[in-house]
Amino acid sequence: MSDSSVVRKPDSGVGHFSEWSRQTKKEFLMEWQEDKAHEWIFVMGNEAGDLDSVTSALSWAYHLEHKSQNDSDPMKVVALLQTPSDQLDLRPENSLALADSKMSPEHRDLLTINELPEDVETLSRKIKGIILVDHPAPLRRWEDATVLGIIDHHEDAGAAPDAPLRIFEKTASCTTIVAREMLDELEEMDQEYHMPHELLQLMLGAIAIDSDGLNPKKSIDTDKTTSERIIKRSRWNDKDLMDVMDDLDDKLGDAKKDLDHLGVRDLLRRDWKNLFVDTPSPRTPTVRLGLASIPIGMDEQIKRTEWEQVFNWFVIHAAWTAEVSVDISVSLSKYKIKDPETGKKKKIREIVLAVRDDIRVDEDQADELFDVVYKAIEQDEKLNVKPWHANQKLRKRQMVWTHEYSDGGRKYVQPLVEKAVLGWK
Ligand SMILES: [Mn+2]
Predict the structure, then answer these.
(1) Residues 6+ apart with CB under 8 A from 216
(2) Cα distances (Å, whole numbers) of residue 381 to 80, 384, 385, 407, 408
(3) What does the pLDDT look like over 151-168, one tens digit per residue?
(4) How far is the CA of 255 from the centre of ligand 1 (A)?
(5) Strand ranges (DSSP E) for 208-338?
(6) 265-283: per-residue pLDDT in tens?
(7) Which of 91, 147, 352, 421 is 20 to 30 Å from 258 by CA-CA measure?
């Protein structure tokens, strides 16, 4: 009997969309092996890898490939997820949305950063180009690549000013812009390509979660009109838009909050962003800043460590920042308490600052860097921080504060810290 009689478990992921994605991934990897990487374009989302990034990248890659499939020179496009495959499931809402779109449970149908057959700096110079979705500028490792387009809903950072495609709009979700552009171009075609329900559902899910079910406070008209156009093409075309979006938001939102099974290392890396900060002073080196957002308070996080003590959180954190080679890190966490005066729930936020002296900066520089950022946070009037209750257990160059500034999440703290580091002389 030959080996071919061995029964292999069929590759799971049974949808049309999963098959397309898996096939595209295979073609890219095969052509890399044949030295044809220069013909390929990567569409990539941001490194935090939320559902918006994943969906925007997959959708735009699907669009470009399908709209050019009858051309004499069809485009070779693959979506690249900048999140390693073992990190994708740290966002349960991603796992659920992908499963609902009949994608493979092990994500074998997605090309992730850890599967690239070559180091990114080398590959970035080899391929035809990159298209960014859901982030405004290429990450440092992609800086040498040709930027062929940016579609984003963050602030325009002025990156790649000559790119042939640049769209920035303040929608709730980047998926909204991608979907609208797709539908506009699709409807212009003599013969439309097929939009599978799985893709349409994924798009609606991404928009629903980012807009809290098209909540007018969280979204703009474009989010709604685009969702309407998506749903008309889906299997849900006879359902009420707001009902569908509400259901998706509830379901994916519940999944998103289900982080009970995650330990501190996973909580840190599930929503982690790295950036280099080039300090202008010739005396100070470029440093790497890492930022975590964790929707669970420090006390609860500490309970999830082996010995349930403060030191334990900080050693897990130190191991992680060493692994990702980060000199200065800021971890933002939050939890709710009942206000003893009003009886209403209120949100408490925490900021953990830590600087290490063994990567790019020496001990004296680490002390200075810590002081600069420490002062910026302490003196910020909006944050109005208070020291954390267990600060006496911290060591050198570690600090934890609490505050109640409701807009004081990563979007506020990151620029504050970046500015402080840039001012380090
Ligand atoms: Mn986004």
Answers:
(1) none
(2) 41, 5, 8, 13, 11
(3) 999 999 999 999 999 999
(4) 18
(5) 272-277, 287-294, 328-338
(6) 999 999 999 999 999 888 8
(7) 352
Find, among 179, 171, 138, 165, the residue nearest to 153 by Cα.
171
Residue entry with tokens 């995650």 = 262
**154 and 297 assigned to the same domain:** no
Count of domains for the chain: 2
- Can you tell me the distance from the alpha carbon of 212 to that of 150, in angstroms, rounded to the nearest whole number? 25
Could you identify the residue written with the tokens 């490939």? Answer: 65
CATH assignment of the domain containing 302:
3.10.310.20
Give the Å distance between the CA of 82 and the centre of ligand 1: 14
Distance 275 CA to ligand 1 centre (A): 17
- Which among 400, 377, 397, 380 is positioned nearest to 388, based on CA atoms? 400
Q: What is the pLDDT of residues 353-371, one digit of tens each?
A: 999 999 999 999 999 999 9
Please answer whether residues 54 and 95 qualify as being in contact, where contact means their C-beta atoms are separated by less than 8 angstroms.
no
Rounded to whole angstroms, what are the CA distances from 348 to 264, 386, 392?
Answer: 19, 11, 20
| Residue 174 CA, ligand 1 centroid: distance in Å | 5
Q: How far is the CA of 383 from the centre of ligand 1 (A)?
A: 25
- Expressed in angstroms and rounded, the spacing between residue 176 Cα and the centre of ligand 1 is 10
pLDDT band at 106 (very low <50, low <70, confident <90, very high): confident
CA of 411 to the centre of ligand 1 (A): 12
Q: How far apart are CA 106 and CA 379, in angstroms?
A: 46
Q: Do 227 and 98 lie in a common domain?
A: yes
Hey, which residues does 331 pair with through a beta bridge?
292, 352
In a domain, 74, yes or no: yes
Q: How far is the CA of 170 from the centre of ligand 1 (A)?
A: 10
Residues 210 and 284 in one domain: no
Q: What's the confidence (pLDDT) of residue 339?
A: 87
Q: Which domain holds residue 51?
A: 12-255
251 & 337 share domain: no
Give kind and range of the element (H or E) at residue 80.
strand 76-81
CA atoms within 13 A on the CB side of 152: 21
Cα of 172 vs centre of ligand 1, distance in Å, is: 7
Measured in angstroms, how far is the CA atom of residue 118 from the centroid of ligand 1?
28
57 and 186 share one domain: yes
